[in-house]
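Session log. Operator J.P. requested a structure for one protein chain; no other inputs attached. Running the standard single-chain path with token output.
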Amino acid sequence: MVQQRSKRKKTSTKGSPVRETKWIWMIAGMLVCFLCLVVWHYRAGIIYYFRVATSKDKSLTKEAKYDIRNIEIMSKHDDKVFGIDVSTYQEEIDWQKVNTINDHFPIDFVFIRATMGEKGMDNKFSRNWSKTANRAVLRGAYHYFRPNENSVKQARNFIRKVKLQPGDLPPVLDIEEHPKQQSMDSLKVGLKRWLEEVEAHYKVKPILYSGDKFYSDFLEKEFAAYTLWIANYNFWVENPKEHWAFWQFSEKGSVRGIQGNVDLNIYNGKIEELEKLLIPFK
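Structure written below.
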């Protein structure tokens, strides 16, 4: 019995192969977790900061955010066309300085929020629209659709406020909300009424904006014929799908002349193709 106990003690010491193997697996697991975390931060876009060169430049905050993922995406698609979309959330924009994203990638188009629902109007629309009139940038206006308000009245609200001209981008319908007091089928009927009313007025087919999942789950079957502007910020997505005319790939863009973040977009084609979408000159 004494001999048996001594053998057991020898096999249960700290230096036993079983415990050493366990520690190796634990350390390996921690390393894998650490590497996954590093990869996640890298793919999500590690934000770094730079100091403003001169305090006279009021368009920049003391520290401006550059998103590495944005730079990667734009560098990969530098044969395509880049643009931004703005609303009252961007406050007072110095349009004379709005030329590039991250001081490098040229801005060739901008979408400006005009109206919301039956009566709402973006309080910065008039200023933003007038300031972009003589800029060398293609511009368009969009309407934020409210599912529980009358769709025809919403269309007429947009038509009253937005005077599109030849050379402007087509009007845009932005649908993001789920209906609260109606079915999804009723929402689709309302969207079609807005699109038809606006198309009849401007004589051009509108663009449809939505989130990737919202569109694929509810709208793809009935609205596939429209030019699509899809929002998808997933950091694993590196390329726009073939049917996305516009891809809103980030909400964390840095543009000189705009305080804070701004949405970034890629047109899935060349500038000559984008120009074919413009309201034609008679």
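Operator note: The mean pLDDT is 86.
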